[in-house]
Design brief:
Layout (H helix, E strand, L loop, with lengths): L15 H13 L8 E7 L5 E7 L2 E3 L4 E7 L3 H8 L2 E8 L4 E11 L2 H10 L2 H9 L9 H15 L9 E15 L7 E6 L2 E4 L2 E4 L3 E5 L2
Antiparallel strand pairs: 1-2, 1-5, 3-4, 4-7, 5-6, 6-7, 7-8, 8-11, 9-10
Helix pairs in contact: 4-5
Length: about 210
């Protein structure tokens, strides 16, 4: 269970273990609806932003990234293809806590996407084939026809579509925030460098700074 508390007087060298503690605490508590929800912001190649709620399905404190899944052909997928950077916010209002991430995004390895897709409910797996996510739709009837078609085509053995899978958000910046009385909040930011390494990154050491709220 998360306590109210504040950030340590001496900030930890690495924010990810504390982030993971908050995340798992929010998931374990019944007081916080949808604790996996995070607002994910992306931009087009020319800088036009968009934001939506996605579900964080895995947090890996070391080496430090968050995983979410989606349709690669969706608007967010197209924007990440054009500009593979994103920002995300977790807001657990039941505990007065917030986490902000800003960083770079790469696709998950196929085995990670396959494993998660296989764990999804059957209807969700069928829906991943039926929905041309973010494309125009003339009527809901058309969508339901597509769902029925894919259900008949696959039955109960539904493979992962090639256009669907995971992304890993590697933060270059992490900001932790705890609500305080009279808006005297507790807030700190950590930054690091990321060097590309195949489908991942080599991360530098974190540098921490406390911030005025």
């Amino acid at each position: 269970m998360l306590s109210k508390g504040f950030l340590p007087g001496t900030l930890p060298d690495d924010p990810m273990p504390l982030f993971a503690e908050w995340y798992e605490g929010a998931r374990a508590a019944k007081a916080q609806p949808n604790p996996d929800s995070m607002a994910l912001a992306t931009t087009t190649a020319d800088g036009h932003p968009s934001v939506r709620i996605v579900l964080c399905k895995k947090l890996v404190p070391d080496p430090g990234y968050a995983v979410f899944f989606t349709n690669y052909d969706s608007r967010k997928g197209g924007e990440l293809g054009a500009n593979p950077c994103a920002a995300a916010v977790f807001h657990w209002d039941a505990f007065g806590r917030q986490v902000r991430l800003e960083g770079r995004v790469v696709r998950s390895p196929d085995d990670e996407s396959d494993e998660y897709f296989a764990s999804r409910a059957l209807d969700s797996r069928i829906g991943a084939w039926a929905s041309l996510q973010s494309q125009p739709l003339d009527s809901r009837k058309t969508l339901l026809k597509r769902v029925a078609h894919e259900a008949a085509r696959f039955g109960t053995h539904v493979p992962r579509p090639p256009h669907w899978g995971g992304y890993r958000l590697w933060p270059e910046t992490v900001e932790l925030w705890i609500e305080g009385p009279f808006r005297v909040h507790d807030r700190a930011r950590w930054t690091r460098t990321l060097e590309p390494a195949r489908d991942a990154f080599v991360a530098g050491a974190w540098a921490a700074t406390r911030l005025f709220p």
